[in-house]
Design a protein that fits this description.
membrane, elongated, 102 residues, 0% strand, mainly alpha, 2 helices, transmembrane, single chain
Length: 102
């Protein structure tokens, strides 16, 4: 005979996690620790925004720097952007007269 296991609770968030909360305040004992809950929007606090915003800005800066040097050989990028940097002479392209088809 097969004995079935008791039903296990579903892991993760339920629909109730995203529903409107009740307006009542939980009881706070006057003898317990006096703490405050940080302001949040669905669990996202200002501390989270600063942390992940700084991380995203760092990755964005590195990605922009990579893209700039990746596309540095495109003539429009080379002439309009790269020639105006301190490394401008490095990006100057001169074609020898014998290699120019025109």
């Amino acid at each position: 005979m097969h004995v079935s296991e008791p039903a296990r609770p579903i892991q993760g968030k339920s629909i109730a996690a995203f529903s409107n909360r009740s307006p009542y305040k939980a009881y706070r004992s006057p003898f317990g620790p006096q703490y405050t809950i940080e302001r949040n929007f669905h669990g996202i606090t200002a501390r989270h925004l600063v942390k992940y915003g700084t991380l995203a800005a760092g990755f964005g800066g590195v990605a922009g720097f990579f893209a700039l040097f990746f596309f540095a050989e495109v003539p429009k990028v080379r002439d309009d952007i790269m020639m105006r940097t301190p490394l401008g002479p490095f990006f100057k392209k001169e074609v020898a007269p014998e290699d120019n088809p025109f």
